[in-house]
Amino acid sequence: MRPTRRQKTGRIAAVTAGALALSIGATACGGDTSGPAGKELSGQNLTVAAVWTGVEAENFKKVLKAFTDETGADVKLVASGDNVSTFVGSKIEGKQAPEVVMVPQVGVVQQFAKKGWLVPLSEKVEMATARNFANVWKDYGTVGDKFYGLYFKAANKSTVWYRPDAFDQAGVKPPKSYEDMLKAARTIGDSGTSPFAVAGEDGWTLTDWFENIYLSQAGPANYDKLADHTMPWTDDTVVKALTTLGELFADKDLLYKGSAGALRTDFPTSVEQVFGPEPKAAMVYEGDFVGGIAKDQFDRKLGEDAKFFPFPGVGGGDAPVVSGGDAAVVLKEGKNQKAAMRLMEFLASPEAAEVWAGAGGYISPNKSLDLSAYGDDTTREIAKSLVDAGDSVRFDMSDQAPAAFGGTKGAGQWKLLQDFLRDPSDPKATAAKLEAAAAKAFGNG
C-alpha cells in the first residue's frame, strides 16, 4: 500500500476519525439552504472531495465560502482520505460521485482520465489558466490533448531549512551553490554541530534529494524524459547525479549520526533534530512545509530562528525548483456539472488563492496572485521562488511514476535510495537496479 500523502507532505497533525463533512455557505449561517437570493447558482448544491483535514480543511472551507458568497451555491466538503483512487472509485460505483475532487498526484489525474472518469475543463477555465499560470501547470493537468486538472495548491520542494545560530557559530552564510553548501556543512561540522539531519527512514525524502540534484545537473528536458521513462535510469546523467548525492551520503561527518542514524530517522524527527527543544543538527532539506512544522510544533519564528535558502544549483546548473501540488478535477458522474465548472473558474482566479494565502499554510502557483496576500515574508519569498521559476518548475518525479516504483515503502526508488544511503560506493550499480525496477513498474521491462 502506498504510504499516506500526509507522510509525503510532512503533515503531522492528528486526523479526525471518520469522514469530514463541512457544510459551507448559507447553511453555515443558519439561513435558507437555497442560498442568497439573486446569485447565479442559488439553490444549487455541490460536493467537493479533498484529502485535507484539520486546519487545511478549515482554510479550504474559507475558499469555498467565498465561492458561495459570489455565486449562491451551497457547497459541502468531504474528506476523501489519502487513497483518493479508492474513494472516487467507490463513490462512482455507488452513484454518489462528488462533482469536484482535489487530486494530489499527476499520475492519479492521468489514471482518472484514462478510466474515463473526468470531464475536460471548459474554455473559460482554460483561458483563466493560461492567463494566471505558467504553461507547465496546465501541462501537468493535461492528458492527451485534453485539459482536466487545475493546480490550485502547490508546494515548493526546493528549500533547505537551517538554524541561523548554528550558521553564526560556524561563521558561514547561506550558500549559492551545492558545492558551497557542502563546504559550509563541513565548516559547521568543525564548529561542533552536525550539519544535516536526513530522514532516511522515509524513502520519499531521498527521492526529493535526488530530484533536486538531477533537475539542476541534467536540466528540465532530461528530467522529463526520466520522469516518463523515455530515458533509462542507466543514463550517464543519472549516474552523475547519484555520484553527487553519494558524496553527501558517504561523509559520516555531514549527517547526524551518519548514514546508519539517518536510516533510523523519519521526517518529523529530522525536523525536530534541527528545530526541536534540543537541536542536534544545523540543516534539514525538504519542502516549504518544514517551516510550518518548525513554527507550529516547536514555536520557532520564521525568518528569525528558522530560515531557509533555495536548494542551490549543482555543478554550474540553475537552482532547481521541484514542486508538488493538488489539482482540482471534475467527475463525469457528478450531478451538477454547471456548478462544478463554475467552481473551477473561481479556483483559477487570484481571488480564490488570496483567501487561503491570507489564512496561511498555503502556496499558490497562480502568478496573478499579489504576493502581499501571504502573511509573512518567509512564505512570500518561497511563493515568489515558485512563481518566478515559470516553466522550469518540475513536478515531483516520484509522484509522476507508478506507485510500485515511485511511492511504495520497501520497494522501487524508496528502497533503492535507502540502500544507496547505506552504501553509496557504486552509483552505476544503483542506477542499474533503479532501471530494472522502473522498467517493471512502467510495464516495459
From TrEMBL:
<protein>
    <submittedName>
        <fullName>Carbohydrate ABC transporter substrate-binding protein</fullName>
    </submittedName>
</protein>
<dbReference type="InterPro" id="IPR006059">
    <property type="entry name" value="SBP"/>
</dbReference>
<feature type="signal peptide">
    <location>
        <begin position="1"/>
        <end position="28"/>
    </location>
</feature>
<keyword id="KW-0813">Transport</keyword>
<keyword id="KW-0732">Signal</keyword>
<dbReference type="Pfam" id="PF01547">
    <property type="entry name" value="SBP_bac_1"/>
</dbReference>
<comment type="similarity">
    <text>Belongs to the bacterial solute-binding protein 1 family.</text>
</comment>
<dbReference type="InterPro" id="IPR050490">
    <property type="entry name" value="Bact_solute-bd_prot1"/>
</dbReference>
